[in-house]
Specification:
It is a single chain. The chain is an alpha/beta fold. The chain has a single domain (30-113, 120-163), classed as Rossmann fold (3-Layer(aba) Sandwich). It has helices at 33-49, 68-78, 98-116, 131-136, 145-163; strands at residues 24-29, 57-62, 84-92, 121-128, 138-140, 143-144. It has a 4-stranded parallel beta sheet with strand order 2-1-3-4, with helices on both faces. It has a two-stranded antiparallel sheet with strand order 5-6. It starts with 23 loop residues before the first strand and ends with a helix. It binds the ligand Nc1c(NC[C@H](O)[C@H](O)[C@H](O)CO)[nH]c(=O)[nH]c1=O and ligand LTPLIIQW.
Protein backbone atom coordinates (compact mmCIF):
# COMPACT_ATOMS: atom_id res chain seq x y z
CA UNK A 1 0.00 0.00 0.00
CA UNK A 2 1.49 3.35 -0.93
CA UNK A 3 2.30 5.70 1.91
CA UNK A 4 -0.17 8.13 0.40
CA UNK A 5 -2.88 5.64 1.35
CA UNK A 6 -1.60 4.90 4.88
CA UNK A 7 -0.35 7.64 7.18
CA UNK A 8 2.99 6.63 8.72
CA UNK A 9 1.90 7.93 12.12
CA UNK A 10 -1.42 6.12 12.24
CA UNK A 11 -1.57 3.03 14.46
CA UNK A 12 -3.75 1.40 17.11
CA UNK A 13 -2.19 2.23 20.50
CA UNK A 14 -4.03 -0.73 22.02
CA UNK A 15 -1.85 -3.03 19.91
CA UNK A 16 1.43 -1.51 21.10
CA UNK A 17 3.10 -3.14 24.14
CA UNK A 18 4.58 -1.05 26.92
CA UNK A 19 8.19 -0.02 26.30
CA UNK A 20 8.75 0.54 30.03
CA UNK A 21 11.40 -2.17 30.38
CA UNK A 22 13.01 -1.69 26.95
CA UNK A 23 16.38 -0.17 26.03
CA UNK A 24 16.44 1.07 22.44
CA UNK A 25 19.15 2.72 20.33
CA UNK A 26 18.35 5.28 17.65
CA UNK A 27 21.06 5.73 14.99
CA UNK A 28 20.55 8.81 12.84
CA UNK A 29 22.20 9.80 9.57
CA UNK A 30 23.47 13.39 9.43
CA UNK A 31 22.84 13.66 5.68
CA UNK A 32 19.64 15.68 5.06
CA UNK A 33 19.62 16.55 8.77
CA UNK A 34 16.47 18.69 8.42
CA UNK A 35 14.65 15.48 7.61
CA UNK A 36 16.54 13.03 9.78
CA UNK A 37 16.29 15.19 12.88
CA UNK A 38 12.50 15.25 12.38
CA UNK A 39 12.51 11.47 12.02
CA UNK A 40 14.57 11.15 15.21
CA UNK A 41 12.26 13.46 17.15
CA UNK A 42 9.26 11.45 16.01
CA UNK A 43 10.88 8.18 17.02
CA UNK A 44 12.00 9.43 20.45
CA UNK A 45 8.63 11.05 21.18
CA UNK A 46 6.83 7.84 20.22
CA UNK A 47 9.10 5.66 22.34
CA UNK A 48 8.51 7.91 25.35
CA UNK A 49 4.78 8.01 24.66
CA UNK A 50 4.77 4.23 25.00
CA UNK A 51 6.60 4.18 28.29
CA UNK A 52 10.32 3.94 27.67
CA UNK A 53 12.52 5.75 30.20
CA UNK A 54 14.51 8.55 28.56
CA UNK A 55 17.73 7.18 30.04
CA UNK A 56 17.07 3.96 28.16
CA UNK A 57 17.21 5.64 24.76
CA UNK A 58 20.70 5.64 23.19
CA UNK A 59 20.79 8.33 20.48
CA UNK A 60 23.81 8.25 18.14
CA UNK A 61 24.68 9.91 14.82
CA UNK A 62 26.55 8.67 11.74
CA UNK A 63 27.64 10.69 8.67
CA UNK A 64 25.28 9.16 6.10
CA UNK A 65 22.72 6.44 5.54
CA UNK A 66 25.40 4.12 4.20
CA UNK A 67 27.00 4.21 7.69
CA UNK A 68 23.79 3.18 9.47
CA UNK A 69 24.79 -0.46 9.09
CA UNK A 70 28.20 0.03 10.71
CA UNK A 71 26.71 2.20 13.44
CA UNK A 72 24.06 -0.37 14.20
CA UNK A 73 26.60 -3.19 14.32
CA UNK A 74 28.95 -1.22 16.60
CA UNK A 75 26.10 -0.58 19.04
CA UNK A 76 25.07 -4.24 19.01
CA UNK A 77 28.69 -5.30 19.61
CA UNK A 78 29.44 -2.80 22.40
CA UNK A 79 26.05 -2.35 24.08
CA UNK A 80 24.75 -5.84 24.94
CA UNK A 81 21.84 -4.42 26.95
CA UNK A 82 20.25 -2.78 23.89
CA UNK A 83 17.01 -4.50 22.84
CA UNK A 84 16.65 -2.93 19.38
CA UNK A 85 18.35 -0.48 17.04
CA UNK A 86 16.29 2.00 15.03
CA UNK A 87 18.17 3.18 11.92
CA UNK A 88 16.97 6.53 10.55
CA UNK A 89 18.11 8.13 7.31
CA UNK A 90 16.97 10.05 4.27
CA UNK A 91 18.37 9.30 0.82
CA UNK A 92 17.23 11.73 -1.88
CA UNK A 93 17.84 11.00 -5.54
CA UNK A 94 20.48 13.20 -7.21
CA UNK A 95 21.95 13.44 -10.71
CA UNK A 96 23.90 10.18 -10.66
CA UNK A 97 23.23 6.50 -9.88
CA UNK A 98 24.80 7.02 -6.42
CA UNK A 99 21.29 7.04 -4.92
CA UNK A 100 20.76 3.46 -6.05
CA UNK A 101 24.00 2.26 -4.47
CA UNK A 102 23.44 4.01 -1.16
CA UNK A 103 19.88 2.68 -0.95
CA UNK A 104 20.97 -0.83 -1.94
CA UNK A 105 23.86 -0.74 0.51
CA UNK A 106 21.90 0.38 3.55
CA UNK A 107 18.99 -1.90 2.74
CA UNK A 108 21.20 -4.97 2.37
CA UNK A 109 23.29 -3.96 5.35
CA UNK A 110 20.39 -3.62 7.76
CA UNK A 111 18.86 -6.81 6.40
CA UNK A 112 22.10 -8.66 7.15
CA UNK A 113 22.26 -7.23 10.68
CA UNK A 114 18.79 -8.67 11.30
CA UNK A 115 20.10 -12.05 10.18
CA UNK A 116 23.32 -11.90 12.20
CA UNK A 117 22.08 -10.58 15.57
CA UNK A 118 19.30 -11.60 17.96
CA UNK A 119 17.90 -8.10 18.22
CA UNK A 120 15.80 -6.22 15.65
CA UNK A 121 17.33 -3.49 13.48
CA UNK A 122 14.55 -1.25 12.17
CA UNK A 123 14.74 0.16 8.65
CA UNK A 124 13.64 3.76 9.08
CA UNK A 125 15.24 5.11 5.91
CA UNK A 126 13.38 7.39 3.51
CA UNK A 127 14.38 6.85 -0.12
CA UNK A 128 12.76 9.61 -2.13
CA UNK A 129 12.83 11.31 -5.49
CA UNK A 130 12.95 14.79 -4.00
CA UNK A 131 12.97 16.84 -0.80
CA UNK A 132 9.22 17.38 -0.78
CA UNK A 133 8.53 13.66 -0.66
CA UNK A 134 10.88 13.47 2.32
CA UNK A 135 9.24 16.41 4.08
CA UNK A 136 5.85 14.77 3.56
CA UNK A 137 7.10 11.63 5.37
CA UNK A 138 9.01 13.35 8.19
CA UNK A 139 6.08 14.95 9.95
CA UNK A 140 4.20 16.20 6.90
CA UNK A 141 1.01 15.11 5.19
CA UNK A 142 1.99 11.43 5.20
CA UNK A 143 3.05 11.33 8.85
CA UNK A 144 6.47 10.59 10.30
CA UNK A 145 8.57 7.55 9.37
CA UNK A 146 10.26 7.90 12.74
CA UNK A 147 6.96 7.20 14.49
CA UNK A 148 6.47 4.08 12.41
CA UNK A 149 10.01 2.92 13.12
CA UNK A 150 9.55 3.37 16.88
CA UNK A 151 6.30 1.39 16.93
CA UNK A 152 7.94 -1.33 14.86
CA UNK A 153 10.86 -1.48 17.30
CA UNK A 154 8.58 -1.80 20.35
CA UNK A 155 6.55 -4.57 18.73
CA UNK A 156 9.63 -6.50 17.61
CA UNK A 157 11.30 -6.22 21.03
CA UNK A 158 8.16 -7.61 22.64
CA UNK A 159 8.03 -10.34 19.97
CA UNK A 160 11.58 -11.30 20.93
CA UNK A 161 10.95 -11.07 24.69
CA UNK A 162 7.92 -13.36 24.39
CA UNK A 163 10.17 -16.06 22.90
CA UNK A 164 12.76 -15.97 25.68
N1 LIG B 1 23.42 11.40 -0.96
C1 LIG B 1 23.09 10.93 0.29
C2 LIG B 1 24.00 10.25 1.09
N2 LIG B 1 25.27 10.03 0.67
C3 LIG B 1 26.36 9.69 1.57
C4 LIG B 1 26.43 8.21 1.91
O1 LIG B 1 25.37 7.81 2.78
C5 LIG B 1 27.75 7.90 2.64
O2 LIG B 1 27.81 8.66 3.83
C6 LIG B 1 28.95 8.25 1.77
O3 LIG B 1 28.85 7.56 0.54
C7 LIG B 1 30.27 7.86 2.47
O4 LIG B 1 30.27 6.50 2.79
N3 LIG B 1 23.64 9.78 2.31
C8 LIG B 1 22.36 9.97 2.77
O5 LIG B 1 22.04 9.55 3.89
N4 LIG B 1 21.45 10.62 1.98
C9 LIG B 1 21.77 11.10 0.76
O6 LIG B 1 20.89 11.70 0.08
C1 LIG C 1 21.91 9.73 -2.76
C2 LIG C 1 23.12 10.48 -3.18
O1 LIG C 1 24.25 10.11 -2.94
C3 LIG C 1 22.87 11.66 -4.08
O2 LIG C 1 22.02 12.57 -3.38
C4 LIG C 1 24.15 12.36 -4.45
O3 LIG C 1 23.78 13.28 -5.46
P1 LIG C 1 24.43 13.11 -6.92
O4 LIG C 1 23.93 11.78 -7.47
O5 LIG C 1 23.90 14.29 -7.72
O6 LIG C 1 25.93 13.14 -6.75
Amino acid sequence: MATSLKNLSDYDPAKVPSAEDMRIAVVVSEWNEQITNALAQGAVDTLIRHGIKEENILLKYVPGSFELTAGGRMIADHCPDIDAVICLGCVIKGDTPHFDYVCQGVTQGITELNLQYDIPFIFGVLTTDNLQQSLDRAGGIHGNKGDEAAITAIKMVQFNMDLQ
